[in-house]
Amino acid sequence: DVSPLTVNRLSIYLRCLRMLQEQGLRQVSSQELGRCFGISPALFRKDLAHLGEMGIRGVGYDVDSLAANLSRHLGLERTHRMVLVGAGNLGSAVARYFGTGDGPFRMVAVVDSDPEKIGRPLGDVTVRPREELRQAIEKTRATIGLLTVPAEAAQSTYDELVEAGVLSVLNFAPVHLRRSAAVHTRNVDLRIHLEELAFYLVR
Amino acid sequence: DVSPLTVNRLSIYLRCLRMLQEQGLRQVSSQELGRCFGISPALFRKDLAHLGEMGIRGVGYDVDSLAANLSRHLGLERTHRMVLVGAGNLGSAVARYFGTGDGPFRMVAVVDSDPEKIGRPLGDVTVRPREELRQAIEKTRATIGLLTVPAEAAQSTYDELVEAGVLSVLNFAPVHLRRSAAVHTRNVDLRIHLEELAFYLVR
Ligand SMILES: NC(=O)c1ccc[n+]([C@@H]2O[C@H](COP(=O)([O-])OP(=O)(O)OC[C@H]3O[C@@H](n4cnc5c(N)ncnc54)[C@H](O)[C@@H]3O)[C@@H](O)[C@H]2O)c1
Ligand SMILES: NC(=O)c1ccc[n+]([C@@H]2O[C@H](COP(=O)([O-])OP(=O)(O)OC[C@H]3O[C@@H](n4cnc5c(N)ncnc54)[C@H](O)[C@@H]3O)[C@@H](O)[C@H]2O)c1
After folding, report:
1. What residues in A contact B184, CB-CB < 8 Å?
2. Across the interface, which of A11, A190, A195 has its CB nearest the CB of B76?
3. Which of A75, A140, A161, B80 has the largest count of CB atoms under 10 Å?
């Protein structure tokens, strides 16, 4: 199957294509793409070939059709409903970031165990009590769970998200979760971004 | 030079090596590493060879020395002092996440333009007024700036961080910054993580 690292490259390709679209470009050569992607044409041609994109000898790629193809593969032609657990500092920022407008990612419910947070508006939703998590997932048929609770609550909250039927979880808590094989689970760790900066700082 | 995508793979390799160290493993084969990394041995052997790591025919790699080598290349043997601008929801979560303990990344100053936030403790620092940004950077010799202000304030804040002498900036605001060539600048966008989940959801 396709590895997450390949998928992340597809996201980067799409961002480049979007910038090129904004600049009004219709065709782009492999060299120009390679410069934007930060990847050699040898490598990305392989990735794009898997999506059925061969490019045209001597011309390159059609910007709009490549962008549309990438967008489709990244599931961005559909709406993905998300629930978030833990409306603290991080959770509030994340909920508001995705909580308005009509991109493919829609925040449909936020829950928290702190009574002080109930009723607080975050984007298009208001914080509901923690006990309503399961019914919120069933009612909205949310497919993605966002886990922004403290470390000590992470595993039990994850288990409940899985049992309530989400298909993927994005975990922000600094714990190695015991993962369900049925639920695609990823960790977010800002440290990876900082390590990238540190790599270049020490060269 | 080394592309950020290569550097991000190094971060992933190090996380795997740390897990193997916790399991008490001393040697690991290319196959086992490939499974952990989610990358074919053909690809990661190339990455590791650039770091002078050749592996031992028939044996694989020495876990401790490989981890130490990766850690050194990722700059984690040094302390990197960071300043954060914008102690809102996201900024507070980030400041506290890095604001305690003694990892390689140390939060040394946080500033905000909102008088209500001044004096608020976040990890080992308290929020200072926005006007103190430059002197905070000079006094602490911070090398990394974290930008967690609203989109409309992002460019001017970035310009000021650059002028005050930081060497890298991690930008969380959803804007394409006009970047300084002298400052290594990266954007963080959670959407990339969600696109990864969406890719697998629509397959
Ligand atoms: N991945 C990263 O790079 C990164 C960055 C910053 C913070 N974090 C992590 O994100 C998490 C949240 O950080 P924060 O600064 O927002 O913390 P916070 O304390 O501000 O927020 C936690 C929220 O979760 C709620 N909560 C606690 N237990 C709960 C439960 N069982 N069910 C529902 N809600 C519950 C609390 O009431 C609170 O509102 C922490 O685990 C932190 O370590 C990760
Ligand atoms: N990259 C991502 O995935 C992601 C996720 C969530 C939020 N965000 C972005 O992060 C930023 C912060 O989000 P938030 O939810 O914490 O917002 P927020 O409104 O809670 O916090 C912004 C903070 O910046 C301060 N501020 C405003 N102008 C300033 C200036 N000129 N100098 C210093 N401080 C200033 C405010 O007083 C406030 O404390 C926004 O740009 C948001 O879009 C990005």
Report:
1. 197, 200-201
2. A195
3. A161
Residue B167 lies in a domain: yes
- The mean pLDDT of A112-140, rounded to a whole number, is 97
Taking only the tens place, the pLDDT of each residue in A90-110 is 999 999 999 787 899 999 999
| B156 Cβ neighbours under 8 A, 6+ residues apart | none
Beta carbon of A97 within 6 Å of any ligand 2 atom: yes
- Regarding whether B184 and B121 lie in a shared domain, the answer is yes
Q: Is A108 exposed, middle or buried (0-12, 13-18, 19+ CB in 10 A)?
A: buried
- Using CB atoms, pick whichever of A9, A184, A202 lies closest to residue B75: A202
Burial class of residue A182 in the structure, from the number of CB atoms within 10 Å of its CB (0-12 exposed, 13-18 middle, 19+ buried): exposed
Q: What is the pLDDT of residues A46-95, one digit of tens each?
A: 889 888 888 888 889 999 999 999 999 999 999 999 999 999 999 999 99
Residues B179 and B113 in one domain: yes
Q: How many domains does chain B have?
A: 2
